[in-house]
Design brief:
about 180 residues, alpha/beta, 6 helices, globular, binds adenosine-5'-triphosphate, binds magnesium ion
């Protein structure tokens, strides 16, 4: 069977938001990155709230040899039990990530920019609404922008083209099952 590779008549850079309280936001974003890799697109991923706990995707993308540049600027989830870093440090990290997002966007090197957990960062006031809206508005027209994280702001949703909410039906955590490598991190 011959495989057809569709090409859109008009290319357009989309704003995609993956939000909700169910599991599957970050993994969706990495799924997009893997798919993009197949099309030889260049992907930049900035992880806002992650960096202190090892997650398989960091080495996963290297081992797959995909053209994915991944930077984790965070120090874990601000405010959750056991996270030792003060708010100011989380805010500084998130502000670094915002600056980096502009640098990556303006470099013109990337077809897709993924800002993982930026919605949480906004809700926790580690970044400001104007900063997120500014990133969206200044996005290069052909670059796709993916924003993940719980509780996406209504104004972010308003500006997006595609928005999905992942709803939790069940989560193993609620049965007291600890996070498992490959599935949860
Ligand atoms: P994933 O990274 O698996 O796609 P996610 O990005 O949708 O998940 P986050 O809110 O970023 O979800 O959560 C990060 C991790 O915490 C995930 O591995 C997820 O399985 C786990 N998690 C999600 N919801 C809960 C919960 N209610 N309790 C405990 N752990 C959770
Ligand atoms: Mg996530």
């Amino acid at each position: 069977m011959e495989i057809t590779k569709l090409v859109p008549k008009e290319k357009k850079g989309l704003v995609v938001v993956i939000t909700g309280h169910g599991k599957g936001k970050t993994t969706t974003a990495f799924g997009i990155a893997v798919r993009a890799c197949g099309h030889d697109l260049k992907v930049c991923i900035l992880q806002f709230m992650k960096g202190d706990l090892y997650s398989g995707e960091w080495d996963g993308v290297k081992k797959m040899g995909c053209d994915i540049e991944l930077t984790s600027t965070g120090k874990g989830f601000c405010g959750i039990q056991g996270n030792p870093y003060p708010y100011e440090e989380h805010r500084r990290n998130a502000q670094d990530a915002v600056r980096l997002a502009h640098i990556k966007m303006e470099s013109g090197k990337f077809d897709i920019l993924i800002l993982d957990e930026i919605n949480n960062a906004l809700q926790l006031k580690l970044v400001d609404l104007d900063q997120v809206l500014d990133i969206i508005r200044r996005k290069p027209p052909l670059m796709h922008l993916v924003l993940t994280g719980r509780d996406a702001h209504p104004q972010v949703i308003e500006l997006a083209h595609t928005v999905s909410e992942v709803r939790e039906i069940k989560h193993a955590f609620r049965e007291g099952i600890e996070p498992q490598p490959g599935i949860d991190y």
